[in-house]
């Protein structure tokens, strides 16, 4: 397995194809089932994340062993099963609910919200609002037919404004990505898909910002602000931290829609200890 590039190369414009038709309908969506308890789900997810991070930075001779260890957990499919079944238990509901509630409050919805759900697994997060949200779901390893198999960094960039999205959803995806630079690149990459002034919805496990050695709420806010987003709404639940970000300076977007560097103020985010203590986790986002 090769190391993913730290920063995504500029993408060639391709035609964007939104899934339509009956396969996109809620009644055709199949979601993985599991019988494990919420505690078991949480344990497997934590183990999977820890291994994912180790794999991203391991030397080639170490990788095979770590990948084998991850396979022994059941691999990605098992991890996703935990996310689609146990996740709702852990989170107190699907991640789309909070996003839709906030959008309804802040935006006069005269038309359906065009939303790109990245890391959608089974593509069910917005299924409860078919009249309100038109979701395009993508995942590296989809678990339903209507979810497009694609890496976010390879997903075709909209060719014109009509194909842009109102919202890009990154729910529990940044923490899934093992490469710390790629996490920052993912936040920047979202600009390419947004209409001017569009939104990015970020969900992370609360511990990523509340108990990390390298991340705090303030630091995350500084990162997204330096990348050209305003924090429109932020709320923590018992286990999650949710952020609705809005692309700042729509003029920059109109002037050079695909030159995402226009949004970045040039601040470099390195690994810097922000909280001391032995019981901290190492969640971190680096950029560029
Ligand atoms: C924890 S799951 C998130 C599921 C769901 N969004 C939620 O909130 O419960 C993370 C998913 O992100 C997907 N993912 C990670 N990196 C990705 C990328 N670069 N492009 C597309 N999907 C990605 C993984 O395949 C995995 O299914």
SS-based structural class?
alpha/beta
Give a quick account of the main beta sheet: strands, pairing sense, barrel closure.
7 strands, mixed
* Helix-strand pattern: HHHHEEEEHEHHEEH
The whole-angstrom Rg is 18 Å
| SS field, number of helical segments | 8
Distance between the termini: 23 Å
Q: Look at the structure and name the CATH superfamily of the largest domain.
A: Vaccinia Virus protein VP39
Instruction: Catalogue the ligands.
Output: S-adenosylmethionine
Strand content: 15-25%
As an assembly, this protein is single chain
| Helix percentage range | 25-40%
Number of strands: 7
CATH architecture of the largest domain: 3-Layer(aba) Sandwich
CATH topology of the largest domain: Rossmann fold
